[in-house]
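Researcher: Please translate sequence to structure tokens.
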Amino acid sequence: MGIEHVLGTANGLAQQIDTTNIKEKIHSKIKKSNSKFKSRLGDEKSHKFAQDLCRYLFQFIDHLYKQGLSEKTVQMHLSNCWSIGILECGYGYRDEFFPGDIFYGLEADYEYEFKKKMSDSNYAIKSYRSTWKKLYKYTKSLGFIDNE
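Model: Translation complete:
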């Protein structure tokens, strides 16, 4: 089983998350899936990278909830975060997670792969780009990207 299967199943998991006490629920879900990730990702570095990326993306989603965005908008970004996680783990070839190395610009990475693996509809692509832009701004606000 590949990383796409492992992280793809997380999309269904995300749709089951009730937003009440979301931080506690996210931590609980991460702990429960810890052994599954280890067995399917192969090596410890890949597992740690995927775990750190997932944690960061959940923190981003929590940030969006705190901004008061609508449930539908947050759900759209959550869905895109799963795609970003799948694509980054599958095509990123990184040993260590550092947010500024991944979300360094306003342009969406892996757009070609997104179109091939996820969706090539104009709506989906615009939505994916929107999430990347928000992730860039979030990453920059946390100081992981130098001011240009």
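Researcher: Any highlights?
Model: The mean pLDDT is 81.
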